[in-house]
From TrEMBL:
Residues 66-97 have a biased composition (Basic and acidic residues). InterPro entries: DUF309, TTHA0068_sf. Transmembrane segments: none annotated. It comes from Streptomyces gardneri. Residues 65-133, 148-170 are annotated as: Disordered. SUPFAM superfamilies: TTHA0068-like. PANTHER family: EXPRESSED PROTEIN. This is DUF309 domain-containing protein.
Length: 170
């Protein structure tokens, strides 16, 4: 499979959707490249978010290729970066592109609603921010997979272990 093109600028919503598609297809390294584009082209305030997600994807890549120790280390590093929540202190985590549409369709409205907290402020619950990303679920997934990767002699199935970036509804 050819590599993803580099330097593609996407909205946060497009980034999450494309990365999820690649993860589901068992191509976590390609998903890593999508997240890498987001951290390089996005606001500096969100760099830790996108880098953390990229580390999870490349950790899954290593675990799937049989590098259990390296995969576990990257999964934990990505989980730690997501847990720092540094983007939350400097950014509302809102997808401004979703709000810029003059006539939002149902998907845009749902995405904007999932990005904002229950009070509409953009500050979501500890599990789901920003851009509807299930941060808490991903941290749990990464730590559990890291533990299994270290203790199991077999490589993990990348598609079978693909995380749900936005929880159960994606």
């Amino acid at each position: 499979m050819p590599r993803q093109p580099e330097g593609v600028v996407r909205t946060p919503g497009e980034t999450v959707r494309e990365a999820q598609r690649l993860l589901d297809a068992g191509m976590p390294f390609h998903a890593h490249e999508v997240f890498e584009d987001a951290w390089k082209s996005g606001p500096a305030a969100e760099r830790d978010l996108w880098q953390g997600l990229a580390q999870l994807a490349v950790g899954l890549t290593h675990a799937a290729r049989g590098n259990r120790e390296g995969g576990a280390r990257l999964l934990r590093r990505g989980a730690d970066r997501l847990t720092s929540r540094s983007w939350e202190r400097t950014s509302g985590g809102r997808d401004e592109s979703a709000q810029a549409s003059s006539e939002p369709n149902a998907e845009t409205r749902a995405e904007a609603g999932s990005e904002a907290g229950s009070d509409g402020s953009g500050h979501g619950s500890p599990r789901t921010i920003p851009y509807g990303i299930d941060v808490g679920g991903l941290v749990t997934w990464a730590r559990e997979l890291a533990e299994r990767a270290e203790t199991s002699p077999a490589a993990v199935d990348a598609a079978g272990e693909a995380p749900r970036l936005r929880g159960q509804d994606t």
